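Record pair follows.
FIRST:
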Amino acid sequence: MCARYVITSPPDAIRALFGYRELPNFPARYNVAPTQPISIVRLLEGKQSFALMRWGLIPAWVKDPKKFSLLVNARGESVLDKPAFRNAMQRRRCLIPADGFYDWRDGMPRRPYYVHPKKPGAPLALAGLWETWTGPNGEEVDTAVIVTTQANRKLAPIHDRMPVIVAPEAFDLWLDCANIDATTAAALMTPAPEDSLECYEVSTAVNRVANDDAHLIEPATPAPAGAIEPANTAAKPKTPDGQLSLF
């Protein structure tokens, strides 16, 4: 799964990769969390377009969002059939720019890891879906979700899920909902090549949503020599602040 990510590339670099027309200016973010505004790229009138949406999908048919579970991730295996995602998979696919993402390895305590491209300066395109929810008074809320797949062998020891990462040559295949059907696009929902990513443990400071600076992606300080590792237990550890367990 993916419930925190990083976007630090300059806006011009993101724009050059995704080819949208808009000229957004956004700051580096080291701890993007659910319910916050996120950058997405979608196809409008045949052209790639930038937009800001809330992270946490609300399907159009939801009556009261307060009574609906926050959907931060969508399992790729079920997006073609699950009612919450089916329509968006057919008509509203998007890409979510990122420079890396965090995941937590089970244990006591849970340990955060930072995953990023092995090639420096190569932002990722995470597969996403978006929806516009319209309230009873006509208010509209644009929301998005990150699609996940099984982790590759490099990341599996940390977590059994990872975001779907779309290669630049497949952007059109994922975004063009008018000409590419959902079943064809679903072929992209595979684990990223193992040699394309690197990962390392980082500080538990990332557990707090309020923390958002470059120190979060620095490698964790090694434990002192002779330190005893806390024993793993069968009890489910406390979920970090803002890290949502959805599936």
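SECOND:
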Amino acid sequence: MSNDLRLLMLSAMFENGGNTTHRFLDGHPQMFVYPFESQLGTHLVADALSSMFPVKYRWPVFALDGTPGEDYKAIIDQECKVRARTPHISKFRDARFDFSDDERCAIYLRHVAQTGRSRANNVAAFMRATFDAWRDYKRTGRQTVYVGYSPIVVVDTEKILTDFPLAHILHIVRNPWSAYADTKKRPLPPSVQDYMLGWTVTQYHAQLFKEKYPDRVHIVRAEDVMADPFETLGAVCEKLGLETPASLRMPTWNGIELEEVYPWGTIRRATTEANHATAQELGPEERRIVRSLAGPYLKPFGYDDWFK
């Protein structure tokens, strides 16, 4: 199952435009686009990065002595499971979503019964079962590529590309001033120092794996997605051998146009003007700190001229 699954995993540091890019891809007629963040990680993830990034965003680890049912429950997938099981407390409660998590689990178990347990087979079964169980999903009959989005999952690129020979990674980077200004709107935001540590570590892995796998790892700027999503994401689609549909011009949910991207992330208006205005929300000292901590990563991404 894993060898023939065409997977496109989106990655982005927090508030770097990952959710925005995800929504622009949503209406692509050749893509199965996951409804929310595809939080595939499990609580068995334990390595040097576990204290920096939430394990729900990491590539999963499964117990060697586990069962398929235990594997399914181990996948955190918080946003989807909350919306399916307790919709009244989900931030996506107003989005129409005819979906049963129990039904998905049953379908997942049938897939794994045919393929056997492995990390790759488990993930493939989970992705396929999601769309099999999503009753009101708008199918075109031409969808072949499964699209997931887990923030910062670019750090696990080696594992993803090894598990799925046909997989690609699309990493999105946003100028750190706007990104941190939006992150500060969270109920419990990190300090600027902690945020920038995560931002630089994420960009390090993106550049590292882009150099190692130039044909399978792709990097775009959120600024370019906002300015011209059709051109920016169309170029990525071409590299995947997919068409460039008009749907790339607008963010959507299950093919329905969204007036604003929120609550898929804190970015409401995915425009160049709103992006610049967000950066201006930081004070002079915060701007200086962001610049000093972003260091050598500003120039390669074209951000060196911001707030000079």
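COMMENT: DSSP finds twelve helices and seven strands in the chain.
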